[in-house]
Structure formats: C-alpha cells, structure tokens
Amino acid sequence: MQRHLYRFFIELTNKKWSSRLLEQYTSSSLSKPMIRPFIKAYRVNEKEMAHPVEDYKTLHDFFMRTLMPEARTIDYGRNHVVSPVDAKLAEAGTILRGCKIVVKGKVYSVTEMLGSHKKAVGYEGGTFLVFYLSPSHYHRIHSPIDGLIAGKWTLGSHSYPVNTHGLKYGKAPLAKNYRDITELQIESGKMAVVKVGAMFVNSIQRSHDRPYWKQGEEVAYFNFGSTVVLLFEPGAFVLNEQLTVPCEVKVGEKIGSLK
C-alpha cells in the first residue's frame, strides 16, 4: 500500500508543467531569499565556495556553484579510481548473472539502465558503485580516471526521486530516469559513468565535448542533486578496502584501483 501511495503522488507531481514551474522559480530572482535558509538547513560549507553567497542571483545559480581550487584534492594515479562527486557512496557490489544489480534490496536491470543488452553483457560479473547526491552536495561531476570516450548517449524522459524512499518505492529510477551515459575505454577494458536525473528536472549538462576525459577534470553537472552509477567490466576494478559502504566521499578521493 505504501509503495502504491508513494508512486501515485509522484505521478501527480512529476509532470512537464510542474517541472517547468519549479525550473522557472529556481531560475528567477524570487528564489534568491531562499539561498540563506538553504545553506543553514543543509549546513553548506561557505568557506569552500568559489564565490560569496551574495554573488548568486538565484537558487539555481547556487545549486551550480563551483568550489575554490584548493577545496578538493585529486588523488592522481595511473591505476587510481577517484570519486567523481561529493556524495554518499550508497552501494557497491557485483553485477549479477542476467546483468542485474541490487540496490536497497531492489533488483535493477543493467540492460535497461544502458538501453542495450549488447552493452550490458560486457559488465556481467563486474562491479557497480552507486553515489547519491543530496541537495546539499556540490553538484559538479569529475572524471574518475583517464579514459578515451568509447560512446555517449542519453535515455529516458521522466525522472523520479533517487533518495532512500525513491530507491525503495519508486519505479526503478536508476534504470528508468533520464540518464546521460558515457562509456570510457581504459587499460583494463571499459567502464560506464551513468549520470541519473533527479525528480522534476532532467537537465544534466556536459562540460565539454572532448574525446578524452582527464582524471579529476569537470565533465558534467546536475541542476539538482541526483545519482551517479559507475560500472566496471569483470576483473577491472578493486574497491578501496578502507571504505566502509555506505560512506561519504569527496571529489578526488581514491575509491579503488584498476587491475
């Protein structure tokens, strides 16, 4: 019953008109008075911000904030894999037979997530990691490795919440939400970076169109908090033993190594 009620109310609100209204409000000067209460409610660290609060004209501008260069340290290394986002590393595990992953006790199809069985089957037996960004997190996405872009595509239209309730009661948001996917060629095979849109606003902006990602560089950003899923082919990745999942991670922090 709880699942059905949750989905019913989300369907009522997750429409083009409601998304448009929210976008118009957050992008207007009317939203500026909400910035200070937002900072207080989510305990945003102002000292890390590249610009003072007064410089942000709208709530949308504040969501898109950049950080001071020294705010994050990239743990560079040829075989290092670093966190692409400030986020909660919510899940990490093995991609099961049939190209399935289990997140919050719910089974997701990697085939559906990537939109292709041909692409998904290469990841069967590999590793997945799910990073959840709350509204308080820094919203820009950085490259976890050095890699040549092997492919990039988008899927989905509507987006449902990807918070705890969304993952538990929603309609498979990691596999059905609007998704911007980049597949990278690395020394040990391929990996996929799946950027998942959040409720109301699907916008995921790419920062550049170069054919190569350099570790630590900004590659995209969210308009609102959302989720990033990393997929690695079998034998390509080993999780950092010092991490206890779930845990908070920062951009540039070493989360594992390539084999």
From TrEMBL:
One of its GO terms (molecular function) is phosphatidylserine decarboxylase activity. The keyword Nucleus does not apply. Keywords: Decarboxylase, Lipid biosynthesis, Lipid metabolism, Lyase, Phospholipid biosynthesis, Phospholipid metabolism, Pyruvate, Zymogen. Its EC number is 4.1.1.65. Its cofactor is pyruvate. Transmembrane segments: none annotated. Pathway: Lipid metabolism; Phospholipid metabolism; phosphatidylethanolamine biosynthesis. InterPro entries: PS_Dcarbxylase, PSD-B. It is an enzyme of class 4 (lyase). It comes from the Bacteria. One of its GO terms (biological process) is phosphatidylethanolamine biosynthetic process. NCBIfam families: PRK03140.1, PS_decarb. This is phosphatidylserine decarboxylase.
